Amino acid sequence: MGLRSPWLRLVLPAVLAIVVAAWAPARLVGTDADxxxxxxxxxIVPRAEVVAGAVMEGFDTTSFATxxxxxxxxxxxxxxxxxxxxxxxxxxxxxDRADVAAIALPAIRxxxxxxxxxxxxxxATEAWGSDAFEALDDTTRGDAWLGYFALALGMARAVDxxxxxxxxxxxxxxxxxxxxxxxxxxxxETYPGETYPPDVSACVGAIGLHAxxxxxxxxxxxxxxVARARDYAVDPDSGWLRQxxxxxxxxxxTALAVYFLAFADRxxxxxxxxxxxxxxxxxxxxxxxxxxxxxxxxxxxGDIDSGPxxxxxSVSATGFTLAGARxxxxxxxxxGIHRTASLFGVPAGGRYVTGGVLGDAILxxxxxxxxxxxxxxxxxxxGP
Amino acid sequence: xxxxHRVPLPLRSAAKVCAATVGAFLxxxxxxxxxxxxxxxxxxxxxxPSAMTWVALALLLVLYLLRFVLVFVAPxxxxxxxxxxxxxLLASGNDLPEAAAPARxxxxxxxxxx
Lengths: 384, 114
Known about the structure:
- The complex is a heterodimer of chains A (384) and B (114).
- Chain A has 17 helices and 6 strands.
- Chain A has 384 residues and is mainly alpha-helical.
- In chain A, a hairpin with a 2-residue loop joins strand 5 and strand 6.
- The longest helix of chain A has 25 residues.
- Chain A is globular, with a radius of gyration of 22 Å.
- Chain A starts with 5 loop residues before the first helix and ends with a helix.
- In chain A, 53% of the residues are buried.
- Chain B has 114 residues and is mainly alpha-helical.
- Chain B is built from 5 helices and no strands.
- In chain B, helix 2 packs antiparallel against helix 4.
- Chains A and B meet through helix 1 and strand 6 of A and helix 2, helix 3 and helix 4 of B.
């Protein structure tokens, strides 16, 4: 066969093109996946600086423009919560580095202070008609949205030697514990008439974290809740967590609950993670993404929780699953999702082009998940 | 004739594709860093789209186009172009003895009629 053979001139390049097209993309995008999973300083610190910088620069509801005052408020609140979670985890992963603490702690304190301001929770005050902080003893209220705040305060308390909100944090946990325990289904409302199991999982995670920080025992309240959650919050068809009371399982809520529940009940957290990744992972050319709806369910578009849904996979479910992949040491899945996040997020100088304040904080929190949870990574990193 | 045109054709094609890839990469990086610096997400999130929203969206689409071409198309294209260039060169190398044969001296031109 000579060099002018059509086989050599046409077929060989075509075969090689297919091989390279399949092999190269995963080697060009998200190449820092392992360094990120290992929380290497050169990768994590620039991202922590971006998140801390945004907090120090300041943001509020005017920084978002979703078209809904409630969602703008939720996003502001969520950005502060995720910033605290992300930065606290970075500090825990590098406890011996004073320079890392110097970047993170001022921003953690500032976000904690912002979360305590009445305007940051105005979205919930408007929904309930009164301020949640003045009704902490009222167990007829749900206020499950407070779970995020309580979890963030717990993480801040774990890393900040000058933590100033100990009494309030204790009171918040007592209130959430009473509400979770007194609700017949273990699902206190987030807003009047609106119940979201992922929000309640944040409450339970916060209760578990608080017990471990203070040396208390939350095992009874957590186990009572887990038993009810298996009956009422987990979708029996898919094994995923329901997004709202009586609804179907959803990828975004399940993935977020995997992260939150890892602070309180490793078994349910791992069970949800297995169910989600067992039927929800879509992988192409080394890029992984997570379905928003279980297979064989009615197709549905995206919403404010899922973000855009494309080919059945959602931005939120995919991003939140990074936490479970790191906690449960599923490195291949972590790499695949990290590549997808890099492909669509477009990293540039420690931030993501399409991330914004909230997106950057969420991704850093999910990609550093592990410290203080009850999952194996805790022990691999030396514990709290 | 420029130096570039003295380069064999298959290698010229490979060089053009390489140059286009480098150009696309540079454009991608400049656009990505610029959009990150201005915080494009805040501009895209707008309940009432303004001209700035559409500009931001257009720039983001250009960024994605460059990114997808660089990640999914460029590697295979580069490999194929370079491979075909090498194969063409090798094939023309077979003809080298003939091509390298000394050219015949030009025939003397007939003298112009007087």
